[in-house]
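Supplementary Note 2. Why include the ligand at all?

Several targets in our set were suspected to adopt different conformations when bound, so apo predictions alone were not considered sufficient. For every target with a known small-molecule partner we therefore ran a joint prediction. The input for glutamic acid is given below.
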Amino acid sequence: MSHSILRGGLREWESPLYQEAVGQFDRVADLIGLDENVAERLRVPQRSIMVTFPYRHDDYDEVGSLFGYRVQHLLSMGPTKGGIRYAPDVNLGEVAALAMLMTWKCAIVGLPFGGAKGGVRVDPTALSRSELQRVTRRYTTEIINFIGPNKDIPAPDMGTDEQVMGWIMDTYSQQVGYSVPAVVTGKPPALGGSVARREATGRGLVSLLPVAALQAGLATDGITVAIHGFGNVGRYAALAAQQGGAKVVAISDVSGGVFNGKGIDVADAMAWVDRNRSLEGYTGGGDRISNEEVFLTDAEVLMPCAIGGVITDANAGDINARLIMEGANGPTTLAADRILNDRGVVVVPDVLGNAGGVTVSYFEWVQDLQNYFWSETEIVGRLREIMSRAFDEVMSIAVVHKTDLRTAALIKGIRRVADAKLARGIFP
Ligand code: GLU
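The joint prediction is reproduced in token form.
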């Protein structure tokens, strides 16, 4: 890396998560002997847009000022694709790291996109609905020249939802003068959103449970699952796991969680959260546990489905699960990953495990471009097919290279991207 663009530090993108993402990339690039000219281009995002903008509080005279980001990691594969997160600590480095992960994710499941990610540094729970709408519309306006159905297609991520995507679609459409559903995915179905998009990440993850359990030497019948995070990913992963015959013994969110060895009624827990906003106070016939204890239960499978950096060298040695399936982005640090590998724990990495979300986003985009909508059966069937094919391909790379699944998945993703970049050549 001595001649690297990153010599002297990561500079603008400096953040622990970005360091991890580059570290992970470098390890795999070395392993496959990646052309250094290509590697150099992939270490840094192609476009990083950082904006500041004002928004009026509900009290008309009060004006807030916010940071917004949109990072497009790679423009060689087609339009860029990735979510927008609203969180109080979002920064350029985090968004850049997540954009890089999106590149690998799309390449691993074979979607015609490069990776992107966006964010606004704001706590969405502290905003009223109308403030959230104004923030969203102004942020969209600030980045409007960089998004579009053929340029960059945002989607939900932490702290954003279907309604936020609806406002983005409307703001963009107002500016160009006609409706452009394909500018974002994860929209309400009434605006051209896809059925089954909301459940897609959780369902996609759980569709890999039988094959992943086999790898971990676990019997699938009545397999026990603990889930960290009960938002859009965790709750639908829990539901799908239960519907598939697994026993969901632990769930949690920021307010804490619950353990019930007999199995939690997931629909009941979802109804509680819909009424009370969080799992706070929920027992579901079991015992209250902390949000951290969910990692340490005796469940056979652990699904981290909330935020990044939660499985670290501090708790990786104490995890009892034999199989970890990552629904969140970047939940496991590099150091924790090494510990888990040494302990023989099978890890289905985020870039494979949670790719169901962007896969159904891809279906949504295709449906919007064609103005022709598919049935839920078609969508779920195609999702399963793409997920299981990607898993099989990653497995065979893992066997050939004698590596863990994360390394194998990254080998697959990075190779595909490198092939495309070499085939395109350099302009001028
Ligand atoms: N934010 C999700 C992810 O990290 C979905 C992105 C998309 O649908 O474009 O994969």
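The longest strand covers residues 47-56. The chain has 14 helices and twelve strands. Comparable summaries for the other entries are listed in the accompanying table.
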